[in-house]
Amino acid sequence: MAGITVHGIPGSPFLRTVEIVLKEKDIPYVLRAMSPAEMRSPEHLGLHPFGRIPIFEEDDFRLYETQAIIRYLDDIFPNPPFTPQNPRERARMNQVIGIIEWYFFPKVAAPIAFNRIIGPRLLGLAPDEAAIADAMPMAKICFSELDRLLGDKPYFAGVAVSLADIMLAAQLDLFEDCKEGRELISGTAFLPGWLGRMRERSSFFATQPPAALRQAA
User: Fold this and answer.
1) Does a structural domain hold residue 154?
2) What is the tens place of the pLDDT at every residue in 26-77?
3) Which of 66, 115, 161, 162 has CB 3.0 to 4.6 Å from 14, enough for a Cys bridge?
């Protein structure tokens, strides 16, 4: 078995997404936990020129970008599969991943979670209430559309968990700990039940964010 190492800051939903996939597939790996102070250091930029996380290494093969990592893992370790074979189900999975990466994380989770959780706890910053307020209109669009796409299905692509479910649940699990997240999720018809199902998986228990972040929220 190839040696796998994952670099990232514990509590990051993107790192957690990769760890959940590894746990679900029972793949051994080593976590190289980073601190916020290491971000954009010469050593970090040597692994990821854009200064982000996570970073995946499998012997001499290095990969960054969460979506690329989890798709690679699903290709080389196909059991259990998290990519639907049905073209429409696969397209729905890809659509939800796109919503996460283009709208939800940069325009909703980043400003709200940073100002409610990360900034106050890790950096000693007061919340920027204006930034939070500015993010709320897009947040409402995201949650309304995600709830519509999920509908009464168990998971976004149908009856089985897909990469989209794992990626979004890793985001929403921590996001719900702040008041805006609780209000947004509880205001939907289908997302609360779906998130509850995802939280019951052993991979989610095994990859809990640090207690300090939850306490900050």
Assistant:
1) yes
2) 999 999 999 988 999 999 999 999 999 999 999 999 999 999 999 999 999 9
3) 66
Q: What percent of the chain has pLDDT over 90?
A: 87
d(C-alpha 176, C-alpha 55), whole Å:
26
**Cα dist from 35 to 11, 18, 38, 201, whole Å:** 11, 18, 5, 27
Phi/psi at 10 (5° precision):
-55, 135
Global pTM? 0.94
Query: What are residue 5's DSSP bridge partners?
Result: 30, 57
For 118-144, b/e burial (b = at least 16 CB within 10 A) is bbebbeeeeeeeeebeebeeebeebbe
The DSSP bridge pattern shows strands 30-33 and 4-8 to be parallel
Same domain for 194 and 97, yes or no, is yes
Answer yes or no: is 170 within a domain.
yes
Q: Is the backbone peptide bond immediately before 54 cis, with ω within 30 degrees of 0?
A: yes
| CATH number of the domain bearing residue 10 | 3.40.30.10
- For the stretch 157-197, pLDDT in tens is 999 999 999 999 999 999 999 999 999 999 999 999 999 99
Reading phi first (left if > 0) and then psi (alpha if -120 to 50, else beta), residue 124 is in left
Asked if 101 and 33 sit in the same domain, the reply is no
For residue 158, which amino acid is it?
Answer: G
Q: Report whether 135 contacts 111 (CB < 8 A).
A: yes
Domain encompassing residue 103: 87-216
Mean pLDDT of 99-127: 90
Q: Which residues pair with 63 in a beta bridge?
A: 56
